[in-house]
Fold:
Amino acid sequence: MTDVFKPPPPLKTDAPAKPRPIAAAIPPTAGDTDSLAQQNSETAVDQTRADFRVVEFNRTILQHGKRVRWRKAMICPCLNDSTGQADLSCTDCDGSGFVYVDPLDIQALMFAFEKGTRLYEKFGLWASGEVAITAQAAYRLGYRDSLELYDDVMNFNELIKKGDRSTGKRRDLPPNTETARYRIVTVAKAVVRSGEGLGVLEQGYHFRVTDNGLIEWMPAGNKFVKDGDYVSLHYDFHPVWIVTSHPHAMRSDVVRADFNVETTAALPLQVSAQLDFIADANRRSPVTGP
Structure:
């Protein structure tokens, strides 16, 4: 006969039985002051307080931030009543609709230079040259503001027309000079069409770059390049970003300052920006004036 399996006997212990968990307490109503006071004492919020340290974040910006020149964007009052658009012949904004004022040198963190591209691959779109910019709260970056990066250079290729004084700020250029879209740091190559094909212009012989980033023609250049000729420039410049998003509307936090007093502190601002020549592909003149 097979033995029948029997469960083990219950474990004997002198320990008291554990109490059953109690039901969750119902939150007090707005008028239940006694329960609310008891709840505040039990939660002990002061013991778990974690404040945002604005000073430490600002120190990080000053230690690792890029040096940029920030210009505020203002809508140009050159409205054309007939078209409702900016006046294309305006000498202040060069027909862009915006003027850039009050340049100020600041520091800012810049990261995420290229966002994820899978969305654009799926829908057939593409957006490049984007960057997230974080600045101290004192510098309230705004939509369409311009930021020119001093610590790096990019290369750019464009055509300039010798002697062009037809639009905008080109009318105010000094004699014998030309402006590119951006202030030029150095010219890598300059070519012009001649009777024998493409002629290469030499910096220091045909032209020089002024301290303001302009092209100034030298006697050999004036002889080789005629007014009205197009010159192809490949040059280095300090990249410029245009703010393409509105900053967070509420960037503040309640912190406990000295003397155990709570105060509202402004937090650093973050905006999205895009390279100027992508955000405004059709603009002829620079947002960074000479």
Notes: Residues 34 and 40 are 10 Å apart (CA to CA).
